[in-house]
Amino acid sequence: MEEVVAIVMAAGKGTRMKSNKSKLVHKIYGKELVKRVVETAKKAEVNDIIAVVGYMQDQVRDVLKDTVYYVEQKEMLGTGHAVMQVAQKLKGRKGKVIVLNGDVPILRPETLKDLINKSIENKEYATCLTAIYDNPTGYGRIIRGKDGNIKEIVEEKDANAEQKQIQEINAGIYCFDIEELLLALEKLTPNNSQGEYYLTDVIKIMNEKGLKVGAVIVEDNTEILGVNDRMQLEMLTRVLRLRINGYHMKNGVTIEDINNTYIYDDVEIGIDTVIHPNTTIKNGVTIGKNCEIGPNSYIREGCTLADNVKVGSYVEIKKAQIGNGTKVPHLSYMGDCKIGKKTNIGCGTITCNYDGFNKSQTVIGDNSFVGSNVNFVAPVEIGDNSFIAAGSTITEDVAADSLAIARQRQINKEGWNKK
Ligand code: UD1
Ligand code: MG
Q: How far is C-alpha 264 from the chain's CA centre?
């Protein structure tokens, strides 16, 4: 494949977020917008990424670290100007450059790959990603000639009444030939209603030079939604929620309430597992087949659940490895622990994993029975086939096949209340 470079435009202000943070470091499902964009490029096998930063750039650099190269845009003079800042870095290179908006975070890597492949196959010097919107207000419009070919892009603010009727919009995501892009950038002028250098003008410039340009219409037009305010941030979270939950359902997982189940990125769930409502499952968790999770439960990072595991209602688990057939049915916190097979953890049991300085492990063996309301003061290890009496505070290891009781004996004083 040809060399492909990506530019992520991440210098803008994001005034409408009303925030002390850069818009681009706001999160969807725990991951910053701009990081999502960079990860999309990487998943589309584009690893050479240049971020154009400006406003609050320290925050953006803090998030992206050394996963990208940085170029600074000192004044925000438009999207064309943003890309001009990268010209030096692109000079002398051949191949394709894709341009991405830092605030369009849920584009799929497959869509990006498709854009790049079509651009290469069709030998186009510029290929734009477009979408058909019922209400195209605010977006640049795609102007096509009689032959159906894309001629230019006109911004909302520069469009005439007829052009405003056009429903095909510019997503702000492109694949360009590097050399021809550099030549076109030299010809950009800020002669428009906003006095900005528009990247979109490159299309017209290339057309006038007789270079072939094209467009790919995105199938699922929620992919190219951008974030400008907190309402849109919530809306995109919702779109992503449906996409992720739908993915698991297609893979054979039952999700009782698609709107109230919060599964983060890179989670694996086996078939016939049932997820009850109001359950949150964080990044990278692995859940086996035929498990039952929730309602109202919280599966945090670092958890691995084998098959046939039950994590019932109001349970929080973190860095927990849970063996086949084990149950944590109600109201527990089990953090930093390893639990074997076919063990039952009684209601209200918790691991005391943090002493204010360090986190410690609780290890519980196979076939054990833990009564209700037990505290495991970690580090502590419980052998196989053991029985822990309800209400115990376990501070010492328990050998296999043992009973452990760690609580005050009850004293009954008969007749005491009559005196
Ligand atoms: C742009 C497109 C428009 C398209 C829309 C899709 C232009 C002229 N118009 O409009 O056709 O429909 O995106 O969302 O390109 N940025 C910088 N430096 C700047 C200006 C912007 O880095 O000087 C960054 C912003 O942070 C943002 C991106 O570029 O990530 C897009 O800029 P924005 O001002 O939102 O462009 P739109 O007016 O939405
Ligand atoms: Mg925008």
A: 7
Residue 367 Cα to ligand 2 midpoint, Å, equals 57
Architecture of domain 251-404: 3 Solenoid (2.160)
The minimum-distance atom of ligand 1 relative to the CA of 197 is 8
Q: Which ligand is nearest to the CA of 73?
A: 1
Beta strands 310-313; 292-293: pairing state: parallel
- The whole-model pTM stands at 0.93
What are the residues facing 311 on neighbouring strands? 293, 328
> Which among 224, 193, 202, 226 is positioned nearest to 82, based on CA atoms?
202
Closest CA to 39 of 115, 106, 85, 89: 106
Closest Cα to atom 29, ligand 1: which residue?
A: 9
**Which whole-number Å values give the CA distances from 418 to 413, 414, 415, in the listed order?**
11, 9, 6
Report the CATH fold assignment for 4-224: Spore Coat Polysaccharide Biosynthesis Protein SpsA; Chain A (3.90.550)
Q: Give the model's confidence band at 1: pLDDT under 50 very low, under 70 low, under 90 confident, else very high.
A: low
Report pLDDT digits (tens) over 64-98: 999 999 999 999 999 999 999 999 999 999 999 99
Domain residues of the chain, as ranges?
4-224, 251-404
* Long-range pairs of 385-393 with CB within 8 A, sequence gap ≥ 24: 390/346
